[in-house]
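To whoever picks this up:

The nightly regression suite flagged Integral membrane protein as changed. Nothing in the input moved, so I suspect the structure step. Input below, exactly as stored in the fixture:
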Amino acid sequence: MPTTESADNDQLFVLTAVLLTPAQFPSVLGDDYPEVCAGLGLEPYAEGYGLVLGQDGNGARWTVATEDVSLVACAIAAWDCGMEYDLSPGEDSIVGALPGWPLSLAVAAPEVPQPHDPEPQEGDPEPLTPPDAEEWGPAQRRLGADEIAMQWAAWREQVDDEDSFAEPGDHAHKGVRRVLEEARGYVKEPPPPGRVRSSFAAGEARTLRVDGPGWSMVARTDDIAFVLLDEEPGEVHPVGRGPELPGLLASLEELAARPV
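Regenerated output under the current build:
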């Protein structure tokens, strides 16, 4: 778990942190890196940011944006290994302190009041709030794609029957066909940073995450793809490789943003 510091009300008790870069950002917050930055009031610099979520001495929620991406990455790596890491960005690296949290947290700092939004001051932005998890929409669609990417093997086992696939040709599901056409358009005209992201997969394959207006696609470069649509709550459409998908995935991989 992240370590916290005991101090006065101006000190931030760090609860967690996330990266905000073209290759890695909380998908729930947007379809691409510039969209997420805009929602947080940040400039979409290519180097990215680290977002530090915590509470002040009064228990108020704050999100601190720092340009020290490597520091935040080191802290996340240490916490993932069960090690303590004192995440304290230098003041010269901090580009903003935003009220509220953009993500839901189930933890709170010890010995301070329960998490709450800070008292608004004149000129302050509205507190950040997590997307509503109750109703299907873009945020839930992206969360669904995250889940498929993390649990690929379990999802893949459900569609071993070739009849379950939507083929990328003329008889494909209308929504799936639209998604594949828009994805092909990305190859011809690269989309905003973060619309296409690539991450590690088993063997020499990569996991591709591709998002667009109203849709998300998760794929393995050596296998099939899954498509989710805003207009079809909770539905997941497997897309078979066929003659077209391998080439499309290879082209998307070439333009994808990768973690450094």
